[in-house]
Design a protein that fits this description.
560 residues; 25 helices; Cryptochr/Photolyase_FAD-bd; five-stranded parallel β-sheet; binds flavin-adenine dinucleotide; FAD; globular; mainly alpha; FAD binding
Length: 560
C-alpha cells in the first residue's frame, strides 16, 4: 500500500477536525460479504446505537415502508462509527476465491468507501499477513481467521462496541465466534446480525419441526411465512451519518485511519492476481457499486422479468438478471431483490406476473441452500449431503478433467459453457447444469473437483449456491434423482441454444456452422470437413456414458 496518499489524507483530515482531549470511544463495524450501506443491519445498528440502551444482539426487525430513506443525523449520544474490512489473502485462497471475484470485491470496496464517506464514516482496510500465526485459530490447516486483526483495530480506534453480520459457512462461523470471544474477553461488546436470508436459517420447518430437505416443500412454507409476516417488506433503514469530524482528526486515531484508508487495486503475490484482459472484460460486464446493482435490478424487473419463464433457459439471451455477483458479495441483499420484485408484482408472489413468480422461486433456491448449509454443516467440508453417495466409483481421469476445463470435450454446448466461464468468470445457469452434469455423469468425475474449479473461476462464487448446484447436478445432494437426472447434452444444446448463437460466440472453430452440424459436428459433418475444424472428437459417447453412469450409481447404492 502507498502511504503517501495516506499522509496527505491524514493532513487534510487533521486540518478540519478538532483534537479531542480524551480518547473518544467508538463503534466498529466489521464488513465481510456485505459490501453495502443500504439494508445493512450491522451498519444501521452501529449508527443508531446509544450506549446504555438495551442489548441489540438478537438482530434487527426494522420496517421501512416503501423503501424510503432515513437520513436523520445521529443524536449527540451516538458514538462515532468506524468501518473495517480485512483482506485475508490466505483465507480467500484457501476458499478457492477466483481472482476475478477478489478484483470485484476490491472494486466494490472502493465504492463502499465512497458511500461511507458520504456518511462521514471512515473505512479501515487492513491486509492480514498470510504468515501471521497469531491469526490462525485452532486448526493450523485452516488459516481462515483474523480475530486478532479485528481486536488490534478495535483497540487502536477505542471501539467499545463491535458490530458485524454473521456468515454461515463452518470456517466463517468459527472465525466469527473466535473473534467475538476475543473481543469480549478484552471488555468489548459484540453485536451480530443475520443479513443473508429473508427468513432466518432454521426458521422454515415442517409441522413436526424438521428441516426441509426437498426444495418444493421448503418453497411452499417459505412463501407462506414471507407473505403472512410481510418479511419481504422488512428492509433495514438507511444508516445515519457520523457528525462531521466525529473521529477526532489530528489524534492518534485519525492518523491510524488515514494510514489504513487505501483500498489496493490489486493484491500482492500470485495467488489472486487477475489477468489484466479478463479484468477489463469483467469490469465492463459487472461494474462495481450498489447503484449499479440497483439499476440492474430495476432494469431486469421492468424489461426482462415478463419474459423470464420463457427466456431464462435460452443461453444466448440476456434473459436472467445477472445479479449473482452482487448478491454473492452482498452489494445487494436477497431481501432487497425480493422487496423490489414483490412491489413490481403488487405485493404478491403468485397470482401476478408468472415471470416474477418464477424469478422469486430462484431467490428461494438461494435461501434453501443456505438453510441446508446451516442445518447440515458437513456439506461445508465437501461431503456429499447423502453419505451413501460417498461410494460412487469415480473414474477421475485427469486428461478428461483437463479437456473439460479447457472446453475441449467435443460437445459444443459443454465447451461453450466452459469457455464462457474461463473468459468471463460467469456462466449461464443452464450451462452450469449441463457442464456440471457432463463432468459428473458423462466423465464420471468426482463433483468436488468441478466444485473447486467453478469456485476458482466464478466472479459470483458463493459456497452455498455452488455446493448446492454441484450436489444437485451430481445427484449426491438434496432430492438426488440419480436415475433421471442425466442430461443429453445434444438435446440440451438444441433446446437452450436453438439458433446456435451462444456456441458460435464461444467456440470460434464452429462459427461458420449451422443447424444440427453446429450442435453435433462430429456426427453431422463428413470426416474430412470435421477434421478441418480443428475441433476435438467427442470425448465419450453419450449413450455409453449414460449406461456407465447408471451402473456406477447402482453399484454405489448397493442396487446391483
Ligand atoms: P437469475 O436467474 O436472475 O436469478 C436471480 C438470483 O437467484 C441469482 O442471482 C442467484 O442468487 C439466485 N439463483 C438463481 N438460480 C439459483 C440456483 N439454481 N441456486 C441458487 N441460487 C440461485 N450461483 C451463485 O450465485 N454462485 C455460485 O457459485 C453458483 N454456482 C453454481 C454451480 C452450479 C453447478 C449450478 C448448477 C448453479 C450454480 N449457481 C451459483 C446458481 C445459478 O447458476 C446462478 O445463481 C445464476 O446463474 C446466476 O445468474 P443470474 O443472476 O442471472 O440468475
Amino acid at each position: 500500500l502507498s502511504h503517501a496518499a495516506a499522509d496527505a489524507l491524514s493532513a487534510a483530515t487533521s486540518a478540519t477536525v478538532e483534537e479531542p482531549t480524551m480518547p473518544q470511544p467508538t463503534c466498529l463495524v466489521w464488513f465481510k460479504s456485505d459490501l453495502r450501506v443500504r439494508d445493512n443491519p450491522a451498519l444501521y445498528a452501529a449508527t443508531t446505537f446509544e450506549p446504555g440502551t438495551a442489548n441489540i444482539n438478537s438482530g434487527m426487525k426494522q420496517i421501512r415502508v416503501g423503501g424510503s430513506a432515513t437520513t436523520a443525523a445521529a443524536s449527540a449520544s451516538n458514538l462515532p462509527v468506524i468501518a473495517l474490512f480485512l483482506i485475508n489473502v490466505a483465507e480467500w485462497a484457501l476458499h478457492d476465491m477466483a481472482p476475478l471475484r477478489a478484483d470485484f470485491i476490491l472494486r466494490n470496496l472502493e465504492c463502499l468507501k465512497h458511500e461511507l464517506a458520504q456518511l462521514h464514516i471512515p473505512l479501515i482496510v487492513r491486509v492480514v499477513e498470510p504468515d501471521d500465526a497469531a491469526n490462525h485459530i485452532e486448526d493450523r490447516h485452516h488459516p481462515v481467521a483474523a480475530p486478532t486483526a479485528v481486536l488490534e483495530v478495535a483497540r487502536r480506534v477505542h471501539a467499545r462496541h463491535v458490530f458485524f453480520n454473521r456468515e454461515f459457512e463452518v470456517d466463517e462461523t468459527r472465525r466469527d465466534k473466535a473473534t467475538q470471544h476475543m473481543l469480549e474477553a478484552d471488555g468489548r461488546t459484540v453485536h451480530t446480525f443475520q443479513d443473508q436470508c429473508v427468513m432466518d436459517p432454521g426458521s422454515v420447518r415442517t409441522k413436526e419441526g424438521k428441516v426441509y430437505k426437498v426444495y418444493s416443500m421448503f418453497r411452499t412454507t417459505w412463501i407462506t411465512h414471507v407473505v403472512r409476516d410481510r418479511m419481504w417488506d422488512k428492509l433495514t433503514p438507511d444508516p445515519r451519518p457520523n457528525p462531521k469530524g466525529a473521529c477526532g482528526a489530528g489524534s492518534a486515531v485519525a492518523a491510524y485511519l488515514a494510514r489504513w484508508s487505501e483500498v489496493p487495486t490489486q493484491l500482492a503475490g500470485d495467488v489472486l492476481r487477475v489477468d489484466p484482459a479478463q479484468a477489463i472484460l469483467a469490469r465492463t460486464h459487472f461494474p462495481a457499486g450498489e447503484a449499479e446493482a440497483h439499476a440492474r435490478l430495476a432494469t431486469f424487473l421492468a424489461d426482462r422479468s415478463p419474459m423470464y419463464t420463457t427466456h431464462r433457459d435460452l443461453v444466448a439471451q440476456a434473459g436472467t438478471s445477472s445479479l449473482s455477483p452482487y448478491l454473492s458479495s452482498g452489494i445487494l441483499t436477497t431481501r432487497q431483490a425480493l422487496h423490489a420484485a414483490m412491489r413490481a408484482n403488487n405485493g404478491r408472489i403468485e397470482g401476478g406476473s408468472a415471470g416474477l413468480a418464477k424469478w422469486i422461486s430462484e431467490l428461494v433456491w438461494r435461501e434453501f441452500y443456505r438453510h441446508i448449509l446451516v442445518a447440515f454443516p458437513h456439506v461445508c467440508k465437501h461431503q456429499p449431503f447423502k453419505p451413501e453417495y460417498k461410494n460412487v466409483p469415480w473414474l477421475n481421469d485427469p486428461l478428461a478433467f483437463d479437456a473439460w476445463t479447457r472446453g475441449r470435450t467435443g460437445y459444443p454446448i459443454v465447451d461453450a459453457g466452459m469457455r464462457q466461464l474461463n473468459t468471463l468468470g460467469w456462466m449461464h445457469n443452464r450451462c452450469r447444469m449441463i457442464t456440471a452434469m457432463f463432468l459428473t455423469k458423462h466423465l464420471l468425475h468426482d463433483w468436488r473437483r468441478g466444485e473447486h474449479y467453478f469456485m476458482q473461476h466464478l466472479i459470483d462464487g458463493d459456497f452455498a449456491n455452488n455446493n448446492g448446484g454441484w450436489q444437485w447436478s451430481a445427484s449426491s445432494g438434496v432430492d438426488p434423482q440419480p436415475y433421471f437426472r442425466i442430461f443429453n447434452p445434444l438435446l440440451q444444446s438444441q433446446k437452450c441454444d436453438p439458433d446456435g448463437t451462444y456456441i458460435r460466440h464461444w467456440v470460434p472453430e464452429l462459427t461458420h456452422l449451422h443447424g444440427k452440424a453446429l450442435h453435433n459436428p462430429h456426427a453431422e459433418l463428413p470426416a474430412a470437413e470435421f477434421a478441418r475444424l480443428g475441433y476435438p472428437t467427442p470425448i465419450v459417447d453419450h449413450k455409453f456414458a449414460r449406461q456407465r453412469c447408471l451402473k456406477a450409481f447402482k453399484t454405489a447404492l448397493g442396487k446391483m
